[in-house]
Amino acid sequence: MPPVALKPALKPWSPAARLAASAPIAIYLAAVILPPLAGPPPASELANRLLQPFRPLVGALSLGHGYRFFAPDPGPGHSIRWTIERADGSGLSGSLPDCDADRPRLLYHRRFMIAEKIAPLVPPADAPAEVRRDARAAWLPLVKGVAGQLLARHEGAQVTLELVEHYLPGPEELIALEEGRAGELRNAAEPGGAEPAKAPDMADIVTPLGTFQPAEGTLP
User: Fold this and answer.
1) Judgement on whether residues 83 and 131 belong to the same structural domain of the protein
2) Residue 24: its pLDDT value, please?
3) Do residues 82 and 52 both lie within one domain?
């Protein structure tokens, strides 16, 4: 039986080679981890300082994501409410995104990002007229794109869009709401029970975006 040839043992890396391979990996990991830590407030001042040398790399690789939609302080969510009128007089309404209709879940997430992209560009309805006029140039092209897609998909004659900022209650408001519900149940079971705590007003903020036709002409 002929002898079996043995593979030569792999030569271990030298310290210099390990350092040369580890340094780019460490730099890339830092560029991925630091932007979320140094994102919108609340944010770490230390992370903001550490991020400064990495900003060219973060910008070149599009790594500047805040990841603040879910934690630690997400802020209010947004959606775009739409109402379509067809040529035959029928109507259709919906929301972008729609947690019931948008499947698979990735589609819901992408449409959620559309609303969140537009929301920071739209001033509130009570903002000064000059501010609203200047901001219109930034958000109107995006809104027209949404309107055009909805009109084409649903064969609409015109569509009306509204930006909805969903109220995000704080811990104290949730406690008051739960106490109010508990008080209602207690009063229903025991007449003369304690007065329930008053639930907070959790109204959404609705900002009109306009009415559009297939030719993207804005109606008055």
Assistant:
1) yes
2) 93
3) no
pLDDT tens-digit readout, 110-149? 999 999 999 999 998 888 999 999 999 999 999 999 999 9
- Which residues lie closer than 8 Å to 3 by C-beta, 6 or more apart? none
Q: Which of 219, 69, 206 is nearest to 156 (CA)?
A: 219
Same domain for 37 and 114, yes or no, is no
Tell me which residue has tokens 């067809």. 86
